[in-house]
Amino acid sequence: MFKAAIKTTAYKQPVHTALSALLLLSVVSLASAQDSIANNTAQIVDANSAVDCRDDIQAQATSYKYQSTQQRVLNCMVEQLQPYQQKDKTAHQQYLAYKAQAWLNYAIHQDSINSRSTAGAYAAQTAESILQSLKNGTEKDISLYQDTPAMSALMRPDLWATISALKDSGGIESAPREIAFSEVALIWAATNQCERGWRESGMHFRMADRWLEQAREAYINAHDAQTNVALEQSIVNYYNQYAPLDASDDVCRGQVLTPSP
Questions:
Q1: Prediction pTM value
Q2: Rounded distance between C-alpha atoms, residue 258 and residue 146, angstroms
Q3: How far apart are CA 80 and CA 173, in angstroms?
């Protein structure tokens, strides 16, 4: 019954050859990032060797002379996130590390298309902030709940409801990567829809949907029937809360998504 309800919010999606999972699954090998982004990542300290990314890059300048400094800084950040994505880390750490990776992929893609919007800089700065918190051991201060930033909007309230319900129910333990990637994909999709129309958003909405299907399946497989029924009810509750906030006019102005009481 719930699936029928949420499908009423489906957005138009173009039929074209998908670029598939290139954008959120890649490990950042796209074009260089903006100088302003590089300045925001000036002091990135390696967790194991305490070597600044920029110092490390300067030492390797001969080997990487065909790559921009900005691109190498962002690649360095991606590499530094990898230890926090391992199974020996907490689910919270893994979730944040994957989320930072998704933000970096977003930032580099924005630069690769020469975007003039603020989205790329916002994504890079958010990733840097998460990385620094992981290194400083202050990641617990970062809320699991994600508001949509000013350059984005709340679209697909059914998917946002699933994300929030999974977080409330401990779903991060079952699928930290899938939840993190779906979250950034939703923000990315809405930003694209506001900036360039629905033809530019469909792929990212589908990506977010696929990631969430995997997260939901992982959760269901790890819990009993009663717990899974409770998850479904929580999704319905969040959907009822978010649906009136849906940006059906395709205007991005951000949205606070607070947990249910």
A1: 0.74
A2: 8
A3: 22
